Amino acid sequence: MLEPNQRVKVNLSGLTIQGVGFSQNVQEALGTIVRQVSADPPAYLVELLFSFKGVKRVEVAEDRIRRA
Questions:
Q1: Would you call the peptide bond into 42 cis, given omega within 30 degrees of 0 as the criterion?
Q2: Burial bucket for residue 65 (CB in 10 Å: 0-12, 13-18, 19+)
Q3: Domain that holds residue 36
Q4: Of 4, 11, 23, 38, which residue is most buried, by most CB within 10 angstroms?
Q5: What does the pLDDT read at residue 11?
Q6: Could you tell me if residue 1 is inside a domain?
């Protein structure tokens, strides 16, 4: 289980979030866990270190997150 304020790397490749499509190259976006948003399946809100076209926070499945 991931904890709030934990630094992580997020694989965003192939996702479209808030109208922004992420290329296959975005496999290790750095961020910080904000909170868990779903238990089944596990998903988290992550605040990214860098904004991608105005997107700073993303909800992603746990299997796309690695500890930094």
A1: no
A2: buried
A3: 7-67
A4: 11
A5: 97
A6: no
